[in-house]
Amino acid sequence: MRSASGQSWKWTTLLLVLAALLCFVDRAASVKENDFKKCHQSGFCKRNRAYADNALSQSSTWTSPYQITPESTSFQDGQLQAMVLKKINAEGGTVRLPLTFSFLKSGLARVSMDEERRQNKDIELRHNSPIRKERYNEAEKWSIVGGLDLDKEAQLVHQDNTQIVVKYGPEAKYEAAIKFSPFEVEFKRDGTTHIKLNDRGLLNMEHWRPKVDKPEGEAENGEDESTWWDETFGGNTDSKPRGPESVALDISFLDYEHVYGIPEHTGPMSLKQTRGGDGNFAEPYRMYNSDVFEYILDSPMTLYGSIPFMQAHRKDSSVGVFWLNAAETWVDIVKAKSSVNPLSLSKASTSTHTHWISESGILDVFVFLGPTPQDLTKKYGELTGYTAMPQEGAIGYHQCRWNYVSDDDVKDVDRKMDKHRIPYDVIWLDLEYTDDRKYFTWEPNSFADPVSMGEQLDSHGRKLVVLIDPHIKKQDEYVVSKQIVSKDLAVHNKEDNIYEGWCWPGSSNWVDCFNPKAVEWWGSLFKYDFFKGTLPNTFIWNDMNEPSVFNGPETTMPKDNIHHGGWEHRDVHQLNGLTFHNATYEGMISRTKGERRRPFVLTRSFYAGSQRLGAMWTGDNQADWGHLKESLPMVLNQGIAGFPFAGADVGGFFGNPEKDLLVRWYQAGAFYPFFRAHAHIDARRREPYLLGEPYTGIATAALRLRYSLLPAWYTAFFHANRDGSPIVRPMFWTHPSEEGGFSIDDQLFVGSTGLLAKPVVEQNKDSVDIWIPDDEVYYDYFNYELMKTQKGKSVTVSAPLDRIPLLMRGGHIISRRDIPRRSSTLMRFDDYTLVVSVSKSAVAEGELYVDDGDSFDHEEGQYIYRKFSLSDNVLSSVDAEDRDTKSIKPKTWLKAMQDVSVDRIILVGAPSTWNKEEVQIESEGKTWTVRAQYHPAEKGRAAYVIVGRVGARIGADWSITLA
Ligand code: NOJ
C-alpha cells in the first residue's frame, strides 16, 4: 500500500515539477528588459521629460506657468492655504489648484496640491467608466501612521505681494519662503538654502481636458495629443478614462552631491545621474512595482517594490524628501557644479537636481531638513512607522528552495541539518506544497501529514513558512474561489466585473485588499480550523503581490482595473503589495481567539510603510558574483529608506552557484538582516551539508557566527523599531562627516555594535580593503589583531575562503551567545558572552535588548534592556532606560530570564594594568571574585583578558572592577 501510494505521489510530484518548469521556460522566454517600458514608451514620462527639455533649453526665458494669487493665501495653526493658478493659454485661461502647506510638529513640511475641478468631480469620464473622478488622495491612509500634528508655533514672519516666509521646526531654525510668481519654494535651515521646489520650473499638473481627436495630417507641434488618452504597449491598451493627469515637480538639493534611497533598484547606493553621459544612466529611475524576472544589474529599471523617500547628503548635513504618490513614478537625477566666484578659494560644489514624475494622484511632498541622517530616518519612521519587532527565529537562518517536495523531504532536510550540526530556524515551502496551486490547501499525496512535519520542526524550536499568493485559482469547487466571487472581494476589470488574469494556477482572480471586507475575510483564512495542517509555528510568505499577472501589461494588472472605493489600479498600484501584506499580517496576528502573536510575513512587493509588517527580499537574483555584489548596496539602501529587514536570496535564485560563490554568499548573507537561502525549482539541491568539505564547514562557520551574534542583531532590530536606525548601516550614516565614505556601499556596521564587515563578493579574492572612517582602534574580530589603521584610508584584511573580513571598532560592547545550538529558540535561555572592544581611551559602551521574541508583552515592559559601559577601569551594566525594573511583575519569559547570566567577558585591547588573576564583581548587594586570564599583546595581536563564569544576572545591575 505504502509503496504504491509512494509511487503515485512521486509521479504527481514529477508532473507538477514538469508543469512548473514549462511555465518557467515560457515566462523566461517572454520576460526581458524590453518587456518593460522605457520613459519614451510611457506617455506621461515622455511628456514630462519633454516639458523639462523645453524649459531647460530656454532657461533664461522660461517661466513656470504656475503662480499663487496673493489674495488667496491664509495662514493659521501651522497651515497655509493658497490657490495656485496654472496658466493654460495665451488668452489668460487658468486652472485652479488648491495648495496646502502644513508645518508639522516633527519639523517636517508637507506640500500638497490638488486640482479643483477634479476635486469637485466636474469632469467627464470616457468609456462610461464607473471610477472616481478625483485625483487619488488616500495614499496617506496606508502609508502614514503618525507625525502629522501641526506645528501651531510656526510663524509667518514675512508677507508681501511676492512671497510668504514661515519659520518653523525646533527653535524655529527652519524656514520656507513661498514665492508667488512663479510658484516656487525655498527651504532653509539656519539661514542657508538646502532644498528648492520648482526652481527649474518643471512643476506640471496635467489638468483635466476633453479628449482631443487625432489631427488630420501632421500634428501642429509635431505632437499628436490624441495619444494622451489611449496608450498601447506590448499589445495591451490602457483606456485612461480620466485622460492625462500626471503630476511632476523638480526638487533641487543645493550643494548636495549625493542622493540615496528610492529603492528598489540595482546599482550603487549613491544614485547615479539619469540624463546620459559617461557612466550615467540614460533613463530615469523608475518605480512601478513589477515582477521583473531575470533582472539586470546596475540599472534604473523598476523592481518589485518602491519607497519614494530620498535623502541628500553632504559633509555634516542630510536633508530629504518623501514623495507620497502611489502611482507609477519616474525620477530623473542630474548633478551640476555650482558656479563659483573665480576669486574665491573654495571648491566648486555640486548640487543635485531631481525631477519627480507620477502618472496620477495629488501632489504630496514631505520635506526633511535634517541635519543628520539619524534625524531623517527617525522622522521618516515617525511618519510611516518603524520596523516591526520580529519573531525571534526570523532573524536566524532560513532554509528555502522551490521546492521541498514532500513533508518527508522537509523532515529529512531538518534531520540532515542536525546531523551536520548546522543551525537554522525556518524551513520554507514554495508553491508546490499546495493542491494544484490552491492556497490554503496541501497537495494531498506529498504533503499528506503536514501536522507531523510541523511538530517535528517545533520539537527543536523551528518554524515553517508557507507561500500564499494573492491570485486565487478560479475553480467552482475551491471554497476560497467560491467565496471571493460570492462575496465580491476581488479586483474588478474596467467594466466593473471581477477581473480574471493568468498566474501560477492558471485563470485567477485577485483579492482586493483595499477593501476592508476583503481584509477581514482574508484574515479569517489563516485560522487554524480553516487552514488545516498549520500550527502556531507556521508563518507566511507573500509573493507575486506587485501583483504579478502573467498575461497583464508589463506582467502586472491593467491600470484601468478598478479597486474598492472606485479607484483605478493606476492610482494605487504601488500600494497593492502593501495592502496584501497588511491583510496577511492582520490575519496572522491572531489565529485563535484571544491570541496575539507577532506575525512573520515576508513580502516581495512593498511601499512606504511596509516595514511595519515584516521582511522583504530582493526577488529573483542569479547565482553569479555580480548579483552577490549588488546585494549589499540593495540591502543597505533598504535600511536608509526605512525598510531595513531585508535580504537577498543566498546562493542566487537562478542557476547553480559554484561552491566558492555559495560559501561567499553565506558569509555575506550572515550580514543581511533577513538571511535566507533560496533556489529556483530548476536549480540543483544546495543545502549547506551537500557541499562537502571544506565548503560545508565554511558555510556552517558563517551560520554559527550569525547565531552567536543573534543578541547583537536582535538589539539592532530593536533600535530600528524604536527610532528607524538601519539594522546594517552604511558609512555615510554612521560617519556623516567623512566624505571618503559617502559612496561606499560594500561594507557595513551591524547596528551600533561597532562590528564592521566587508563580505568578499568577488571570485579568487583572498583579501579586501576596508575603508576606515575614524581615528578609533580596530581589531580583527576573530584573532584580535590590532589593525594598522588610519582614518580615511583603507586597511587590507586577509580573507581566504574561510575568513569573513570583520573588524571590531574600539569603544563597543557586543553581546553574544556562544553555545552552538540547532535553532535560536533553543538558545533562548543561554548565558551571554560580552565582548568589550576597548577604545583608544580605554572606554566602551554597548546595549542589549531582549524580549520573548513572540508576543506583544514587550509593549507592557516584559523585556530586558541593558546598557553596558566601561570607564575608569570599571565595567558595569545598568537598565538602559533607568526603569524601576522591580516594579514590573514578570511573566513566564521574564521569570525564566532571571536565571540567565553573563558567563564570559572578553576584553580586547586590555591595558597591562588589567593583568590580574581575579576580578571583583558587585551585584544585587553581593560581592564576589572570579578568575581572569590576561593574554599580553604579541605579534600584532592586542592584549586581551577573559573573565570567566561571571555569574551576574543579565537583567540585574552589576559592576566589575578591572584594576
Ligand atoms: C517568484 C519568487 O520570486 C520566487 O522566490 C519563488 O520561488 C517563485 N515565485 C515561485 O513561487
TrEMBL record:
Domain Glycoside hydrolase family 31 N-terminal: 98-332
GO terms for MF: alpha-1,4-glucosidase activity; carbohydrate binding
Source domain of life: Eukaryota
Pathway: Glycan metabolism; N-glycan metabolism
Region (Disordered) location: 212-241
EC code(s) of this entry: 3.2.1.20
Biased composition (Acidic residues): 218-228
Locations listed in the record: Endoplasmic reticulum
This protein's UniProt keywords: Endoplasmic reticulum, Glycoprotein, Glycosidase, Hydrolase, Signal
GO biological process, one term: carbohydrate metabolic process
InterPro entries: Gal_mutarotase_sf_dom, GH, Glyco_hydro_31_AS, Glyco_hydro_31_C, Glyco_hydro_31_N_dom, Glyco_hydro_31_TIM, Glyco_hydro_b
First-listed, main subcellular location of the protein, grouped into a coarse class: endoplasmic reticulum
A Pfam family matched in the record: Glyco_hydro_31_3rd
Domain Glycoside hydrolase family 31 TIM barrel, residue spans: 387-716
PROSITE patterns (alphabetical): GLYCOSYL_HYDROL_F31_1 (PS00129)
Major enzyme class: hydrolase
Family per similarity comment: Belongs to the glycosyl hydrolase 31 family.
Name used for this protein in its record: alpha-glucosidase
Organism: Stachybotrys elegans
